[in-house]
Amino acid sequence: MSKSSSTITSGVTDAPQTALSPVEENEARFAVESWADGFFAINARGNMTVRPDRCAGREVDLLEIVDGVRERGYSTPLLLHFGDVLETVLGDLRQAFDDAIRQHDYRGAYRGVYPIKVNQQRSVVEDVGRISGGMGFGFEVGSKPELLAVLAMTVEQPDRLVVCNGFKEDRYIEFAMLATKLGRMIVPVIENLEELELVLRHAERFDVRPRIGIRVNLNVQGAGRWASSSGVKAKFGLTLAEVLQAVDLLRDRGMLDCLQLLHCHMGSQMNDIRQVAAGVGELTRIHAELHRLGASVEFIDVGGGLGVDYDGSQANSAFSRNYSLEEYASTVVHRIQSICDERNVPHPNIVTESGRAMVAQQSVLVFDVLGANRFEPHRIPEDLEGLRGRDGEEPARPLVDLFDAWRRMDAENLLECWHDAESARAEAVNLFTLGYMSLEHRAEVERIFWTLALRARELATSLDPVPEELAELDDLLTDVYFCNLSVFQSLPDCWAIEQVFPIMPIHRLDETPARRGTLADLTCDSDGKVDRFIDREDVKRWLPLHELEAGRRYLLGAFLVGAYQETLGDLHNLFGDTHVAHVRVDDSGKWWIEEIVEGDTVREVLAYMQYDPTLLARAIRRECEGSVHRGSMTARESREMVLAFETGLAGYTYLEPDPV
């Protein structure tokens, strides 16, 4: 059944067909039930809703929230954070491992840690800390600034496990040892043997017995887009020979008991559970060998890698995963348990760093559409006389051939006529380039060709199968919807690694979308676009969209964008951070805004680039005064120019349309 069909069949030849409502059609069209994991749905009014605990009785209207934020003076683009969704996701992770531990009679504990590199925004990290404290979760840091931030945010929380990854110089390790002196549960993970020497030196200096971790390079390589970041050629970690050197060094110093954590990196967004099992198995074998050598390692850290099902296909693809959260937890627990039992080794505590899976679902980016370039049919002359130029010149042969293809085209000779049209257009372009065709005739070629293409796409739907060349018309004839956002700032992974996110209208979903389009952003870069969209079978090159209506806003939402997008965004064309609204929902389904973090102003982004806004404003005032003195501008006009400039410096970097 095509996605635009209004009926559904049961698979029985003579079974009655049941009509679907437009809302139900759109649920299927945008695969909402597949990727939303129960957190998002479409209500009877055709608006997207958020269900913080997956319960329909506690849902809020996304459009209502956006309107509420606008009433408070903040326009789109707007990033919405839902702390209640975050709480549910973290609880799911905790529950999945608790269930697996109980089912397998595992005798160790589970300690999740949040890698703040995934989303370093203060409000997000604070939310994770507040929510996960009672769940026994800690933090992972990968740099000195991240370590200092986490140390300050976990004051009077000595039981929070803090895992320190990344390259470490003397100062980084000094901070870690001082934190140990404070009684913190902090574990510097050794990435090279020089770091171990620094840890031992500062431990002696401050008279502490530190908890030490080592990261080992596994032979097993991860799966998915980031597979190359793991394996024996991974960026971080010790070889097995270096692991033995570290063990010998610690034994010689009488500090082998300080080796308390074994760590690995299997990759991000692991899409294949078999690779997860293989990596955990190899890591556990190393753990058992360390135990044989006298190192009673307390924690086994399997790193990150728990994938997010961005397209809802639950498949072994770059944008999905072929396993559930419960299967992931069970696989990790069972694999560690079986090897430890085989080797008669105590079960270690399990640590995961599943940052992407922790925070991706809590964030929704909402942005407005500003306008569109659309493919529309043109009126074609009835005969060749209508193709004459303004001076009565005869139409060139390619134009005549194209007109003939248009007149002859029907379902029976569709492919032949399409080939003739392509050839005629290519010849016309060549003639115009050489100066043998007028601009009027060249424009007529374009009008006839694209009108013919639209008709060809329509006729192709009656063919079975549709020839590949005609199937490509769906991609060729997509509209371009211009959107009030910067892909480089808010969806950088779309540009950098061709990541696919669920994107769809957040309202008008009680109407059937009549257009197919790609999205273009505000930047002056040709890469500032989104032309890859989720599809249950494959990546789709267009998005179903509604007709734009004069005087009516059209809002789109990008979902599951809470991981990495805020951290990786840049200032292309000086478009800065968007406004961020932290939304909470009470038990009755009423929402309120906990905090609004204002987006960057023009003044702020200029300052980031070392411009002095005060000096810029002073230069404009000076020029205006000169214009008044020369008589080319009145004093009132000068004042208006200065006021407009200073107001612009204080304004949002994005377009601020008039209220509708």
Fold topology:
Blueprint: E1 7-8, E2 18-19, H1 22-29, H2 32-35, E3 40-42, E4 48-50, E5 60-61, H3 62-71, E6 78-82, H4 83-103, E7 110-115, H5 122-132, E8 138-141, H6 144-153, E9 161-164, H7 170-181, E10 185-190, H8 193-206, E11 212-215, H9 240-252, E12 259-263, H10 273-292, E13 299-301, H11 325-342, E14 349-352, H12 355-359, E15 363-373, H13 397-408, H14 414-434, H15 439-460, H16 468-471, H17 473-476, E16 479-483, H18 487-490, H19 492-496, E17 503-505, E18 515-520, E19 529-530, E20 543-545, E21 555-559, H20 565-568, E22 579-585, E23 591-597, H21 602-608, H22 613-630, H23 635-650
Parallel strand pairs: 6-22, 7-8, 7-14, 8-9, 9-10, 10-11, 11-12, 12-13, 13-14, 16-18
Antiparallel strand pairs: 1-2, 3-4, 4-5, 6-15, 15-16, 15-21, 17-21, 18-19, 18-20, 22-23
